[in-house]
Amino acid sequence: MWQKMAALVDRDVLLFGQILVLMAVVIGLAMWLERVAGRRGGITLLLGARRLTMVAMFAAVSMILMLFELPLPFAPGFYKLDLSELPVLIGAFAFGPAAGAAMEAVKILLKLVVKGSSTAFVGELANFVIGCSFILPASCVYLFRKHHKGAIWACVAGTVSMTVAGSALNAFYLLPVFAAMYGMPLEDILAMGAAVNPLVKDGSMLSFILACVVPLNLFKGLVVSVATFLVYKPLTPILKVGYGIGK
Q1: SS3 state of residue 71
Q2: Distances from the Cα of 120 to the Cαs of 13, 76, 163, 182, in angstroms?
Q3: H or E segment at 118?
Q4: Which of 100, 121, 138, 239 could lock 158 by a disulfide, CB 3.0 to 4.6 Å apart?
Q5: pTM of the prediction?
Q6: How far apart are CA 62 and CA 110, in angstroms?
Q7: Phi/psi at 167 (nearest 5 deg)?
């Protein structure tokens, strides 16, 4: 018994360490992209006390939104919609990809402090990866195209990227890991999808992904993108004080 508990603790510590390393790598990559953009367009890096304060504030709001989850009629109950990417996308549009990656990381860490993990950090790892797959492409496109059409293409790129990444991550990592973690056959998890969505065929991972995971990510990307368009411009005068942030 004690050996089993020690093994579980070791597994959790290892996964948490992997999350921290991944966060550092992603933030570092985003900062490198900003350096490239800075040489081309004068975009500043994630520096300055006020900017760091704004990033922390947006991350805190994102963490709060992460706690409010809505069930979806076309997916099993363990898939829920949250709008935690909304403040992150606004902050990433204002301050760049590095800020977006940092906000995603702080959001996850704050959530772990407030609520802990019910999935041995697997869910938090997935949330960070899928969130960054939306935020980073969107903010990178907007970094070079700071206008209305650029924002539209940025949101489209982010939504498509998140849908592809979310689908692949669920199919090849999340669903098999959760099946093993909870000691149940993968087919039973797929059957949960078939029970609520007639488009899911029994035992078919592909139909589960196409009918449940893809619509979830597309819908989330659409909702977050529309909400960002509605609130970003009114917030711009506050966000751009002292930084010369464009429209």
Answers
A1: strand
A2: 9, 20, 24, 11
A3: none
A4: 138
A5: 0.88
A6: 10
A7: -65, -45
